[in-house]
């Protein structure tokens, strides 16, 4: 009887420590992105119409960074601190505007969740 109770406590403590994390739900991430203002410049999929977007569609971001081990950290920092307008790696795909720093609009923990979800779009 004591082992199931200890196992339950262990699983609860691992879950609260972030070791066991539930996958992010798309609707929750879309709502977080909308609240933080991300959808002003970005979309999830490329939109038809030939007009260059302000920021790259997230499905393209996921494809570009697929398999890169440092992608989560790198993109989290880009969201929080902004991008360098002189080092655009989306030339001829977006308008050319640099990404502004967003640390005021979204905290680091939520940024990491959102970026992890964006990177998972490549698997869908």
From TrEMBL:
In terms of Pfam families, this protein maps to: Cytochrom_C
Question: Looking at the keywords, is Zinc-finger present?
Answer: no
> Which range is the signal sequence, renumbered to this chain?
1-21
Which GO molecular function annotations are given, in alphabetical order? Answer: electron transfer activity; heme binding; metal ion binding
UniProtKB keywords: Heme, Iron, Metal-binding, Signal
- InterPro entries attached to this UniProt entry: Cyt_c-like_dom, Cyt_c-like_dom_sf
Reply yes or no: does the keyword Iron apply: yes
User: Which protein are we looking at?
Assistant: Cytochrome c
Organism name? Solimonas aquatica
Upper classification of the source organism reads: Bacteria, Pseudomonadati, Pseudomonadota, Gammaproteobacteria, Nevskiales
């Amino acid at each position: 009887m004591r082992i199931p109770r200890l196992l339950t406590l262990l699983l609860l403590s691992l879950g609260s420590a972030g070791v066991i994390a539930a996958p992010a739900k798309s609707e929750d991430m879309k709502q977080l992105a909308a609240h933080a203002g991300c959808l002003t410049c970005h979309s999830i999929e490329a939109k038809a119409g030939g007009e260059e977007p302000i920021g790259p569609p997230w499905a393209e971001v996921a494809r570009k960074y697929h398999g890169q081990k440092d992608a989560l950290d790198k993109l989290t920092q880009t969201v929080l601190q902004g991008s360098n307008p002189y080092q655009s790696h989306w030339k001829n795909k977006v308008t050319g505007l640099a990404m502004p720093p967003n640390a005021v609009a979204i905290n680091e923990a939520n940024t990491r969740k959102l970026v992890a979800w964006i990177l998972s779009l490549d698997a869908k």
